[in-house]
Amino acid sequence: MKYVQRLLGLLPALLWLQQSFAQEIRVSGVVTSRSDAQRVPGAVIRIKGTAHGTQADADGKYVINANATDTLQVSFIGFQTALVPVGNNRVINIALESADSKLQEVVVTALGISREKKSLGYAVQELKSKDIAEARETNLVNALSGKIAGVQVTSSQGSLGSSRIVIRGETSIAGNNQPLFILDGIPVDNSQLGVGTGRDFANAISDVNPEDIASISVLKGPNAAALYGSRASNGVILIKTKTGKEVKGGLGVTVNSNATFDRVLILPDFQNVYGQGAGGQFSYKDGKGGGLNDGTDESWGPKMDGRLIPQFFSNGEAVPFVPHPNNVKDFYETGYTLNNGLAVGGSSEKIDYRFSYNNTKQVGILPNTGISRNTFTASNTFRIAPRLTLSTYANYIRSSADNLPGVDGRRGNSVTLQFIWFGRQVDVSKLRDYKNPDGTDYNWNHSYYSNPYWIQYENTVGQLRNRFFGNARLSYQILDWLTANLRIGTDYYQDRRKYKIAYYTNGTPFGSYTEDAYAVSETNGEFTLNAKKQLSRDFNLDVLVGGNIRNNRFEQNYQQAPKLAVKDVYTLNNSRDPLLSTSYFSRQRVYSSFGSAQLAFRNYAFLNITARNDWSSTLPVENNSYFYPSVNGSLVLSDALNIRSKALTLLKIRGGWAQVGKDTDPYQLINTYPFNQPFGPNPLLTVSDKFLAKDLKPEITSSTEVGLEAGFIDNRIRFDFTWYQSNSRNQILLADVSPTTGYLKKLMNAGEISNKGIEVMLGGTPVSTRSGFRWDVNVNYARNVSKVIELDKEGFLNNYVLGSTGNMQVLASKGQRYGALYGAAYQRDAQNRIIVNADGTPAIDPNKKILGYYTPKWTGGIYNTFTFKGISLGFLIDTKQGGSIYSGTNYTGNYTGVLATTLPGRDEEHGGLPYYRNGQQNIQLPSHTATAPNGAEVHHDGIIFDGYTADGKKNDVILGAEDYYKAVYNSSLNESAIYDASFIKLREIKLGYTLPKTLTDRWKLQSVNIALVARNLGYLQKHVPNIDPETAFNTGNGQGLETLQIPTTRSIGINLNVSF
Amino acid sequence: MKKLLIPTYLLFAIVLLASCRKELERINKNPNEPTTVQPDYLLSNGIKANVDTYWGPDAAMDGTLLYVQYWSKIQYTDADRYIAGATGTQTVWSNFYAQGIEDFTALAQLGDSLHNPNYKAIAVIMRSWIFQQLTDLYGDIPYKQAGQISQYLTPVYDSQKDVYTGLLAELKQAATSLTAGSNGIGGDILLGGNILRWKQFANGLRLRIALRIADREFATAKAVFDDVAAGGAAALLPKDTVVKLNYLASPNQNPVGRNRETRNDYRISKSIVDKLKALNDPRLPIYATMPKDTNVIIGVTNGLPSDSAARLGFTKTSDAGTVFTATTAPAILFSYAEQQFILAEAAQRNLIAGSAPALYNQAVTASFVQYGIPEASAVTYLTRSGVAYDATNFKKSIGEQKWLALFGQGIEAFTEWRRLDYPQLKAAYAGALGGNIPMRFKYPSSEQSLNGTNYKAAVARQGADLLTTKLWFDKF
């Protein structure tokens, strides 16, 4: 509160600073770029030989006082400096020639302020529209992968679904670690709603159409983002949309058309020797135990050598038992995405306008899955009066899906569970007609599964999302150096989902029907006052103060008919049992006031200060106000020391310190009593499992960073280095506690986590010939070291559970790197040898151990571009190194005997040992041809586990292959399923061609561009077998647990863009 | 315009500063759930939720019902081979503590604040019943510091001896403080608000615990029996009463019934079928169903490998009887039959005065009646060799008949089998414990990460955290 008064106190001082230059004349004009006639906001206009100058506004307009004898010196990054004598002109419009240099970039920073990159004391990286639109990622987040140092993207499984993005590692132990998305100055939601429902719904930012994006700035860490407050402590992704201003001439029409095809990238490597069954035996009768092991879904059955066995399709007749090597692969289809868009834009003296429409139809690789999306945008700028501008942006998106793929390996809605148990002899094409005449399903197994096509066509999940976001901004230039902005923005969507489980589905004989509806909204009202002032010859000051009110609302309504009364009718009325209903409503409000100031000295030394105070409804009244400042500076040494030369084009150092406060979710202060479903006429209320905290305090992240930027040899080599350190304390944790406390979770203000790291970017132009051939290469590298310093103040808690599956937990463990994979390990002796039980199986250590960390040690990417006369070829390789993954696909597939890795030892041919059974004991035989005493059956699938007995003897107990693999790979022993998740991936290849101007002119077109894009081409390095190590199941923090993922896809697409 | 905008800004700031705090607090009032609770709703919930756990898949079906060889598995046989999944023990632990101990602790406090000692006493009885299940299964458990999160974030484990003796004291106090006629209670879905019945149930639990510790703490046990005996006949359950939760139609169905709606993994164990057959016991056709394809009740051997179990055929083997698998089948917490078995053994061991054979005969007869078999059949049954009470080997007589009578009550039967060592059971055929049968549940692995220091102390005192570690009460 005091802070606001302080800020208000600043105002008169600013007013006082206004000076007049009565003896001079007033010159105004517009600065444009000669090459494309676009306006150049932020261009610097100076009186040559003096320090007197100004900057062009957001529309490229400037006003300056000058004498007739003066010469205007107009400069801007990326352009050659222009000199224009003033003379008697009152209006001087200046067209700048572009300089072939990436040195003096302008980047969009917090609150949409364009700043020269050299003036910033922190790292910012920007992607331009071409990079985003041509990459053709359906989930916007994926387009950032590998291109920006320190940005980690974990992309969706399959081709639909969610992607997770984290910048500079996880700073919050428990909370959201994803950055804040700001579109044209207004936050847009990126929630993933409905996590844990067995479907991987796409995160909300995937609604944004890449075609509408002009640029994306990534503000890393709190230093860059302090002005955005609470939610910016994990960084900010600033999205700037296209406007009509970019259109040349009066009217421009752009048509964009794109088609992308997706195929499965990685499937498990299956064995094709042994079929379904157990103990080597199988015979089908009813698929649920009526025949010989026909209820068993594992592949420990007979050899698939064509022997005659009754099978599911043969009506009891014995037919050849043969492998179907592609029975899983054949189930997946070619997915595709068709994207068609049209944009119309133009600009005139009074108005810039742009309308666009985009239609995306995406079909998944799983049968009967897909989503379609229609996007309408309107972006307008009205120059109402010389000093008054109104800009509006409106976006309406309608996404609808009839069916989305199921995840989490749930039996009713996911096929990936079934496929890791799929009998190797099963011919998937015989399952395509999935329904029997009586309406039940036709399948290879009826003990556990419904037909996979049944799951895809009958047990569907539909989604319909209607979303509107937009903003209106009124900008008034009060004085030449003082601008006021009022901005109102909203993001509102309704998301309705319908889950159908059909009658006769295995496990739910009556089926079920669920409707889950969400309404989410955020509105922001923001007022800012911006003063830009030349203080003296050497000093420039740019000050901004403002206030913001944010309102969030969330509503969920969930209703389920748990058992249908009548089959095939999906309404809530069609219910055998009482409906299961829940509803939830929440509200949140945050008031903020903020300010920033930049003081520039001779355009080479810059000092930036920001401060913000938030008042959040989610915190207790005593603690709900929190203040956090930041300071950073930069010094362009090459200019300050005047050592700029052809060899050294830029040398800049920068540094800063920042704090960001963070509140929590609504209703975390007072304990409540949740409802349970009534027991007959008796209503049920229970004590909540969560113990809340009355006296919660805001979470504070402090961060320091320093950096160095340099350019050499006419900027042919560019280098950017950042070191940062951040520390988050007073973290708001909903920590798992021992259930013996009476609660499962306790909300507390505890926890401290530190992140340290470096980011390096190296850019170069190794070749640039006169003929126009150019090779650019950009390399980025980031290393982040996180450490959980403290959990609770009292020291009771050593571990915070981020996620779990079975025994396996992902922890924030005190003193450790974030994201420890904690699970059951082999028991080892003093020499670290695995101890074996008396029965020959590996012993499990009664104490769980840390088996790895999902967080990578470092990430990086290399992007090469070759351009020659309108042709460009780019390819991106990126990598994550040093993380681990727990693979459910691998342990399950080894347990069930379907993976090729279960062949060793299964018979004589695969190195199995001969033995016979004596009661429960297996006795090894000297050779495969030896006979066993008393005519006992000789087995050839013996394996001896490589370990030692507790008393130090080499293990010699022989196990049958089935027993061996089941003993090593099961849910009680996690260590055997931990793999190195490191990879190097060929992420993207782009081949683009822009038709020559001579040709397009002849056709009266502005430009024609064709691009071929291939994504996720393959791995150059990968350690984990059978799966893609780079998979998200949701956007939460419990990563590193792979549970029966949908295979990721490789995609190839073509993009056509025509402007006329 | 210029004049207008600055005052707007000032106004904006002033409004912001003045109104924010109270407004913000109002916004953060949770509209979704109440912040206070009614005792009757809490009582109903506590009974339903915890009986579900007690009778449910983790404590009973995949645990004690298999260990004590009431049931066996014909599919997914790992649990029957003592290869315990990770989640079962966690669910039992989490549910009993976070739903049971906490709900009833809150109800006890409500009883105090509402000046209704009957609510408090019932809360303490139910909480004691839950603690008894927990210590029967795990041994040393957090007891004195449990369910008090504000004071104890990592509760200390108490020795099993301390838990049982603590429960005896709590139950005595609760039984004493119950007063019929005033302080009515609502939401009692177990005993319909019958205060006298609650008192009898509390006393029954006291006797159960007293006998449990009799091998270790005879004097303490004796004092309890004396005290209950002093209350006269009204202190104990009258003939043929059963403390049970009657389940309703879906979605409030019996957990076993819920399992049978969709799964077909369980069978009745060969061990109990063989015993019932050997004794020509009329409870056999009630405890077991007739398989579809045969006219003979066939039990399945415990702990077969998956392939050999599946090969037996779903339609050729018997499931447990519909009395147990029906949607509305009751879950039994305590019965007159069990009470008489306790008294029989107490008489045999001079904990009370009375005739052990007579009480034993009453117990067996009560079990027959409980399953709708006429008392007359019990008369002939009780004369058979192998049934007639044998004072020289009372553990065998009582152990076997109590085992038969407690069918379906996995936790209690498993505990009494450990204490009495009868019936003599053979370990699961392909058991994973080297020919041994489990003697307890393992602590859930989350205790290692969330309450590590106290967990380690408990393990150091009690013995390794293994299924085979014997508990304190299990002296022989």
TrEMBL record, chain A:
Coiled coil: none
Top-level lineage group: Bacteria
The keyword Lipid biosynthesis belongs to this UniProt entry's keyword annotation: no
Cell compartment(s), UniProt: Cell outer membrane
GO cellular component: cell outer membrane
Predominant location category: membrane
Pfam families named in the record: CarbopepD_reg_2, Plug
Signal peptide range: 1-22
Residue ranges annotated for the TonB-dependent receptor plug domain, each copy included: 117-236
Keywords for the protein's UniProt record, in alphabetical order: Cell outer membrane, Membrane, Signal, Transmembrane, Transmembrane beta strand, Transport
Membrane topology recorded in Swiss-Prot or TrEMBL: Multi-pass membrane protein
Record flagged with keyword Metal-binding: no
Family per record: Belongs to the TonB-dependent receptor family.
Cross-referenced NCBIfam families: OMP_RagA_SusC, SusC_RagA_signa
Protein name: TonB-linked outer membrane protein, SusC/RagA family
Automatic annotation (TrEMBL), chain B:
UniProt xrefs under InterPro entries: SusD-like_2, TPR-like_helical_dom_sf
Pfam families documented for this protein: SusD-like_2 (PF12771)
SUPFAM superfamilies: TPR-like
Signal sequence region: none
The protein's name in its UniProt record: Starch-binding associating with outer membrane
Species this chain originates from: Chitinophaga eiseniae
